[in-house]
Amino acid sequence: MRSSSPTSSCDSYGSAVSTAPSTPPPELAGSYFLVLHDASQAFLDGLLAKASSDRVLLCKGAGAVKPVLEEAAGVLGDMAVVDDARWERVVSNDNGSEAIYYKTKDVIATIDKKPSIALDTVQCDSKLAPHATMLNLFCEAGLRSIIGLPSRSANTTTTLYILERPPLTFPPFSSTPRSAPNPIANPYTLPSLAEFTRAWAIWDLITLGMIPSELLHSKPIDLRHKPLFYIGHLPTFANILLSRVIGEREVGPRHYLTTFERGIDPSVDDPERCHSHSEVPERDEDWPVIGDVLAYRDEVREKVIKRIFAEVESGERALTRRLARTMVMVHEHDGFHIETLLYMLIQRAGTGMLPPPGFAPPPWPALAAQWDAIPAPTTPTVTLGPATITMGHDDQEPDDLLPALEHDVGAHEFGWDNESPARAVHVGAFRVEWRPVTNGEFLAFWQGPGKDVVDMPASWAQTEDGEVRVRTLYGPVPMAHAKHWPVLTAYDDLAKYAAHKGGRIPTEPELRLFLDAYQVGYEEGANTGFRHWHPLPATAGLQEIDGGRGSNGGVWEWTATALDAHPGFVGTGIFPGYSSDFFDGKHQVVLGASYATIPRLGDRRTVRNFYQHNYPYPWVGARVAYDV
Q1: Is residue 162 a contact partner of residue 60, using CB atoms and an 8 Å limit?
Q2: Which Pfam families match (predicted)?
Q3: In terms of DSSP H, where are the helices of 428-490?
């Protein structure tokens, strides 16, 4: 816990201690900070130490705070929250004005003494703000909302946020800093070193904090490599591509360049059929040991990536569009594989893999009660089209080498080869459901009309007594807790569900039109960028709230469009075969973003991901469209 600032004073008058030296006074497991004013980012940032069990209880609105504190005590499982004797008043400073907050005492008195605080008299007096505004404030302060608790009292209109300091947060795009390579604060140009470092932090948290050493050689999914491969793959991808673009020899052991070069995406129907990929050792003992792989990872980060940033900053190396594009590829490749590894690990969550360290386990019952109260859409569907939309953006890789564009970096929006060029596409009239198919809806289909027609989703788990649970990175949870989340399963099975309802899966242009009109982005509160480590219920379709705009819950979405070349498509020469290797009629385009998608990928509207139509593991759902 951080100490109070030098301008703070404490009104607790001291605490009496036990007279029995053999019985030390009990200590709290963590401290609570109750904030009742319109706190600034800097004020909130200064409250909690890193890697602590302390919590901020931030109240927004006007009214008595005791009712929401009582609810918070139940969520936290700690009645200290409503014990007057455990609180003390602190006078501090926020943006030059006096700010009063309350904190629990580090040591509790063990003899009777009249409490200095009476929680019944404490009032919240701050302005209510939209939920998305609060989420942005929290992430910029390095905090995360575990849950927001609205008051259930008729006399108060307040929300109490329970906040933690997680290992990292993703700031909103509006706080993208200006720099020499990025003078206009463009979020889609060359990533900053801070962005690389943030992605490394989440990757290291997953690979070092969630995978026990004895499971490094396990294969949670038969159609993908073991976790150890991916720990070596990310630095190898960076090592090969960046060394090539700067014209220097790769660092590290030479055999790593072939062992860890490229992952696999074999045919689901015939796993022996696979695109070009690395040949990996068959025996566990023939793989490099984890310590050597981590040393190699660090060498690539220091001697290749950080060195390039330092040379560009000093002027020793010119920043060209080709170099910037390669850096973008390396960073976004990391982002895609963060999600790949997680959807693999979730298959072993609760049976070996560990939950994300430093992030509090969700209070499932309290969250589920809130999710049950989310209103249904005003109408089941919305009608869109006819319309002409722009698909993609202009970002042809060969243009990097044109003299007029060679150094045009800061204002440019980079992407992958299948995102370019911009093209006009006509979309006919259609109806589409406001929200993706939920676990509860698909469960009823799977147990009823779809029995023996569709498979049980790989995102579910069945207990020995037949109970269906939903997988999370904290272990499987009861269906009652996750019934409103989008179901994550293969395209084929969701297409059968849609057909049963008299509909179909939307095409890519149709889904793009819907998402452009009604899907919110990260800064508007979307469930991306690890705000949560699980999906949420979708919220779109309430006409009285922002015209129906909302979140899809934090999942990618299937489209009926197969990945293929389009007019003007030019395949990448930096990473040959990135898209074209999968122009096989088996891979469907997916749009959107999951809760584990970095915001840079989640918010760039031109991003197109793709998976095999019968691949059940990725975090992809779907909504139902209808002809009109």
Answers
A1: no
A2: FGE-sulfatase
A3: 439-447, 479-482
505-516, pLDDT tens digit by residue? 999 999 999 999
Q: Is residue 184 part of a domain?
A: no
- The predicted structure's pLDDT at residue 17: 30
Cβ partners under 8 Å of residue 410, min gap 6: 181, 182, 183, 184, 186, 189, 190
| Residue-level pLDDT at 625 | 98
Phi, psi at 80, each rounded to 5°: -60, -25
Our count of domains for the chain comes to: 1
The mean pLDDT value of the chain amounts to: 91
Task: Retrieve residue 34's tokens.
Answer: 């109750």
Domain assignment present for 99: yes
Q: The whole model's pTM is what?
A: 0.92
**What are residue 163's phi and psi, to 5 degrees?**
-115, 145
DSSP structure string for 523-561: GGT-S-TTSSSS--------TTTGGG-B---S-EEEEEE
Could you tell me the pLDDT band of residue 26, with boundaries at 50, 70 and 90? Answer: very low
Find the distance separating the first CA and the last CA of the chain, reported in whole Å: 60
CA distance 625 to 433: 6
Which residue range forms the structural domain that includes residue 35?
9-165
The DSSP output letter for 77 is: T
Q: What is the rounded radius of gyration, in angstroms, for the C-alpha atoms of the chain?
A: 26
Task: Give the CA-trace dihedral at 244, 249, 254, 259, to 10 degrees.
Answer: -10
Bridge partners of 93, per DSSP, are: 98
List pLDDT tens digits, range 584-619. Answer: 999 999 999 999 999 999 999 999 999 999 999 999
Both tokens of residue 396?
């042809």
Q: With respect to residue 287, please indicate whether it lies within any of the assigned structural domains.
A: no
pLDDT digits 0-9 by tens, 271-317: 666 555 567 788 899 999 999 999 999 999 999 999 999 999 999 99
Q: Are 439 and 484 in contact (CB under 8 A)?
A: yes
623 — alpha (psi -120 to 50), left (phi > 0) or beta? beta
Q: CA 591: distance to chain centroid?
A: 15
Compute, in degrees rounded to 10, the torsion defined by CA atoms 90, 96, 98, 102: -30
Q: Answer yes or no: are the C-beta atoms of 60 and 159 closer than 8 Å.
A: yes
- The helix (run of H) or strand (run of E) holding residue 401 is none
Are 555 and 594 in contact, with CB atoms under 8 Å apart? Answer: yes
Residue 587: strand, helix, or coil: strand
- DSSP annotation string for 331-382: HHHHHHHHHHHHHHHGGGBTTTBPPPTTSPPP-HHHHHHHHHTSPPPSSSEE
Secondary structure class of 417 (helix, strand, coil):
helix
**What confidence tens digit (pLDDT) does each residue in 312-323 have?**
999 999 999 999
pLDDT mean over 155-176: 93
Task: Output the six-digit token pair for 221.
Answer: 């999914």
Is residue 207 a part of any domain in this protein?
no
Burial string for 315-349 (b: 16+ CB within 10 Å, else e) reads eeeebbbbbbbbbbbbbbbbbebbbbbbbbbbbbb
39 near 133, Cβ under 8 Å?
Answer: no
Q: If residue 103 lies in a helix (H) or strand (E), which one and from where to where?
A: strand 97-104
What is the structure's pLDDT at 278? 65
pLDDT digits (tens, 9 = 90+) for 30-68: 899 999 999 999 999 999 877 678 999 999 999 999 999
Q: How far apart are CA 570 and CA 588, in angstroms?
A: 19
User: DSSP characters for 509-520?
Assistant: HHHHHHHHHHB-
